[in-house]
């Protein structure tokens, strides 16, 4: 099976498997003392994985997977069994057994590549010998092991008082209440909005506004009934982040988060603070004025997203960013493609089980990869 590796400053994450392989897994490794000191609440970790799991409602793929995670710690287990461990590296492995695979739904994709999938580029890179069912290692299924590693990171950050909250900011042209809007309301403070975000994880549909959720669900249903799909944007807010984390140039927080976020299939963009909207403002409108509030340095606005010069501002403002997800490329409509053997134009109808909108299930995924980036930064300070 394929293995892909992210190497941070203090931690390394290896993701193994494919969409329809027998199993998928995440391997978290680093300094032996650091890894062996990590305590994991496996019940809490499973609850986090359950938020991402497929087949639970009408707006996700009908593929049902329990996504039960099996945690093992080879370095500690070897020591308990009296086996020598000369390595200075500690390891935690999290494995999920795939129980509902249908690889026959995905035959012939290298010959007739699906539009906006990685079938064509996988053939360019790996050649005719590349064999993969579904999206293979490019599949959204591989966000499950990312959530294993990220879920462990979330637990470690919570011990430091750092919390990560994500919600659907928009689907199609329908929007939820976002951070910048909330803090402008006369009756809504930033702290109150964070309270709303804490409730999102327990909701079946992860928005702040239940009214917005109903409209989004109807839009997803309409697209699905038409054999189509929709995309959207997820907003993430990080609270409790100490100041002075990150650095200039290659050490910036934005770059660290973006590096991991683009490992998530279907991510097409990320913006911090007011992002591209800042281009329509003058400096006097976009600058975040400092002020003393309750004896602490605060920013009156947060157009910067809580990061200046790649470094966190701490209590002055939370980290805020938004991630854009494209519409699910697997749709039921007939589409144009090519036959790479016959060198001719042809049509394709995609079979299999797919989300009409991946955004709701991607909410915990954004929290997971954000946690991995920030945890590594915290460990490196």
Q: What would you say this structure looks like, in words?
A:
With 381 residues, the protein is α+β, with helices and mostly antiparallel strands. The protein contains eleven helices and 16 strands. The protein has helices spanning 32-36, 42-52, 74-80, 119-126, 143-158, 179-182, 190-200, 210-225, 253-261, 283-286, 359-380; strands spanning 3-7, 11-16, 23-31, 69-72, 89-97, 163-171, 174-175, 232-239, 267-272, 290-293, 296-299, 307-308, 311-312, 319-325, 335-339, 344-348. Strands 1-2-3-5-4 form a five-stranded antiparallel sheet. Strands 7-6-8-14-9 form a five-stranded antiparallel sheet. The model has no long low-confidence stretch (mean pLDDT 89).
State the share of residues found in helices, binned by percent. 25-40%
What distance separates the N and C termini? Answer: 35 Å
Count of helices?
11
Quantity of strands, as a count: 16
Topology summary:
Elements: E1 3-7, E2 11-16, E3 23-31, H1 32-36, H2 42-52, E4 69-72, H3 74-80, E5 89-97, H4 119-126, H5 143-158, E6 163-171, E7 174-175, H6 179-182, H7 190-200, H8 210-225, E8 232-239, H9 253-261, E9 267-272, H10 283-286, E10 290-293, E11 296-299, E12 307-308, E13 311-312, E14 319-325, E15 335-339, E16 344-348, H11 359-380
Antiparallel strand pairs: 1-2, 2-3, 3-5, 4-5, 6-7, 6-8, 8-14, 9-14, 10-11, 12-13, 15-16
Helix pairs in contact: 2-5, 2-11, 5-11, 9-11
